[in-house]
């Protein structure tokens, strides 16, 4: 397995997932938000600015070589598309997905996620 971890989406969900995973030394973050990318750089990651739904951008980030791919985008529909694309580019990577809706856990697993974490925003967790 490769020592590369590719993280697609670098917000609160990604940070929550990354706290629970052993990471490799080589982390690449793919995100469209320059502020998120600045945070990733500050945490020692290499970055690629782009859309994780785009196969070319996923390849540019190195998904096809990754040992682990973390999909942590704000929208479950986008996350499903990215999970499926990541799995198509790399059959052997461990794909970890952060989902917003618990009902989507099984669907993410059927699309190729090996591990699925349910992530809710802080506002959603308040009574």
Automatic annotation (TrEMBL):
Which InterPro entries would you find in this protein's record? NAD(P)-bd_dom_sf (IPR036291), RCK_N (IPR003148), Trk_Ktr_HKT_K-transport (IPR050721)
| Pfam hit, one | TrkA_N
Q: Where are the transmembrane segments?
A: none
Please name the GO terms of the biological process aspect recorded for this protein, alphabetically: potassium ion transport
The source's domain of life comes to Bacteria
Q: Where is the RCK N-terminal domain?
A: 2-118
Stated name of the protein: RCK N-terminal domain-containing protein
Q: Lineage, please? A: Bacteria, Bacillati, Actinomycetota, Actinomycetes, Pseudonocardiales
